[in-house]
Amino acid sequence: MRRIYLDYAATTPTRPEVVKAMLGYFTDAFGNPSSLYSCGQETKGAVEEARGKVAALIGARDEEIVFTSGGTEADNFAIKGVAFANESKGNHIITSSIEHHAVIETCKFLEGRGFIVTYLPVDKYGLVDPDDIKQAITGKTVLISVMHASNEIGTIEPIAEIGKIAREAGAYFHTDAVQTLGHIPVDVNELGVDLLSMSAHKLYGPKGVGALYIRKCTGLVPFMHGGEQERRRRASTENVPGIVGFGTAAELAQPEMDGETERLTYLRDQLIKGLMERIDHTHLNGHPLKRLPNNVNVSVNYVEGESMVLNLDLESICVSTGSACSSSSLEPSHVLLAMGFSPEQAHGSLRFSLGKWTTEEDISRVLEVLPRIVAKLRAMSPLLKSHR
Amino acid sequence: MTKTQPLYSEKVMEHFNNPRNVGEMGNPDGIGHVGNPVCGDIMELYIKVNNGTTVDSKFKTFGCGAAIATSSMVTEMVKGKSIEEALKILKRAVAEALGGLPPIKMHCSSLAEEALKSAIEDYLSKSKGE
Ligand code: FES
Q1: Is B115 in the pocket of ligand 1 (CB under 6 A)?
Q2: Are A304 and B64 an interchain contact pair (Cβ–Cβ within 8 Å)?
Q3: d(Cα A298, Cα A271) in Å, to the nearest integer?
C-alpha cells in the first residue's frame, strides 16, 4: 500500500535538491569554518551564503541570523536570552496559552527564576486578542512571545498588530515562525518582530538545524559559551551540511510559495468539506479562514484519537491527534483545552497537515477510509447509546 | 534502514484491529462501568452468568489502542470461568496475554480489570437481592 503522509507539520522529508546540495559538505568540503586555510574558508563561505538565503526569505539582514540546532533552541535562546539580558529593566513576560512546548516550558523555567509570566487566553478559534496584550503590559514587561501560526490548529495570529503594541510599549517581541516559514510570507519588518524562530525540517530542509532572527541592537545573552562562532552569540562548530541544506530549502521555498499556497488551500478545503459531509458530529478546529494553507484539524465526537490514528496507520495513512491517550503526559492537548474544549472533544481530535507531495488522490483516499474507521470505533463507543 | 519499533505488540494490534465481543448485551447479569482516572477514557463490560460460570461477555470502550485490545482480551479470558476464577483475572495477566503493553499504557489494562470487577460486583449484588 502506498504510504499517505499527512503529518508535514511534524516534519517534512528533505527535498532531493537539498540533500544534493548538502552531500559535498560531509566528505569533500568538510573543513571547519573557523580554520584559516582555504578548505576552512570554503565552508565559511558556504555558511555565509546560506545565511544570506535565510535572511532573504524573511526580509532580514544577514548578520541578524544566528543558526541554531532547530526551532526549540531558537525559542529557548530568544526567551532566556532576552529575559536574562534585561533583568535590570523588568521581569515580566507575556505569552499565549497555545504556544509550542518549547516556549511554554521555557517560560515555566523562568517562572522558577523570579520571572512573572502572563499566559493569555485565546478565543474559540485559537486567536490571541491584541487588546489582551495591551491590557497585560506592565512597566516591567520585557518580552512578548506569540507564535505566528499554531502547529496544531493552524490558526494564524495577528502578529503585525501585536508587533505595533510591543513596539509602543518598548518590549521585545518574539514569534515562533516554525510553522509558517517557507509556507506563507514571513517578513520581520511587516510583522514588527525583534526575534523570530525558524526550523529547517518543516520546509523540506534537514533536521537538526534552525535559526533565530535577532533584530539589530536586541540585547540578549548568548545561548552557548565557547568559541567565537555566530558573532559570539552561539558558540559551537557550525553544522555546515545542515546550514547549507537550510539555505537551499529557504531559497527553493520562496518562488514556490504562492503556487503551493493555492494548491494546498484547495486540497485543504476539499478535505474539510469531505470530512464534514461524510462524518456526522464532526467539526473543524481552529479558524476557518485565518488558517495555514496545509492544516486541517477536526474533532470527531465519541471516538478517541489514538485509536483513529492507529487505524489510519493500518491503512498507511499518517496523521496525528491531540488526544490525552497519545501524549506521554496523558493530558489532552493544551491548545484545544485553551480554546475551551472539553477533554472529550480534545480526545477525538485529528490533525492532517498537507505538503508538497500530497495529491488529490490522497485526499480522496482519506475520505474513503476514515468514515469506515469512525463507524467501526463508534460501534464500540459507550458514549454513543442514542445512536444504536 | 533499521527496524521500526512498533508501539504495540502484534497481539495487541491483532485484538485492536479485530476486537472480540464488541457491543452491548440484552439482559446482562452484570454491568461494569468504569472511567480511566488517568486519561479520562471509559469502558463498559457486560457479563452473562449461568450456574456461577461466566458464559458470555461483551464490551464497549472509548479509549486508545491498548484500552480496546485489553477490553477484547479480558472479555475472552473471562468466558467459561467461574466467578471466583474471574475475580482473579488481574491486569498483569491481561497484559501478558497480549504479549505485553508499553509501560505508559499499563493504566489502560487496569481499566479492563476494574471493569470486570465492577461487572462481577454488580452481578453479585443483584443475585444477593434475588
Ligand atoms: S485509554 Fe487513554 S491511554 Fe489508554
Answers
A1: no
A2: yes
A3: 10
* Residue range(s) defining the domain that contains residue A359: 4-11+257-382
> Which residues from B are below 8 Å from A310, CB to CB?
8, 13, 16, 65
Whether B93 is covered by a domain: the verdict is yes
Q: Tell me which residue of A205, A355, A378 sits closest to A279, measured CA to CA.
A: A378
Are A144 and A95 in contact, with CB atoms under 8 Å apart? yes
Task: Decide: A312 and A1 in contact? Cβ < 8 Å.
Answer: no
**Assembly ipTM:** 0.92
Q: For residue A316, what is the domain's CATH number?
A: 3.90.1150.10
CB A325 less than 6 A from any atom of ligand 1: yes
Looking from the CA of B85 toward its CB, the CA atoms found within 13 Å total 12
Cell 504479549 locates to B99
Q: Do A280 and A324 lie in a common domain?
A: yes
CA distance B27 to A43: 77
Residues near A128 by Cβ (< 8 Å), separated by ≥ 6? A96, A98, A120, A122, A146, A157, A158, A162
* Angle (CA) A275 A287 A120, round 5°: 135
Tens digits of residue pLDDT in A221-269: 999 999 999 999 999 999 999 999 999 999 999 999 999 999 999 999 9
pTM score: 0.94
**Segments in chain A forming alpha helices (H):** 16-27, 38-58, 71-85, 101-111, 130-136, 159-169, 188-191, 240-278, 305-314, 334-338, 343-347, 360-379
CA distance A162 to A145: 10
Q: If you count residue pairs, one on A and one on B, with CB atoms under 8 Å apart, how many are there?
A: 64
Indicate if A325 belongs to the active site.
Answer: yes
Which of A252, A272, A299 is at the close of a domain? A252
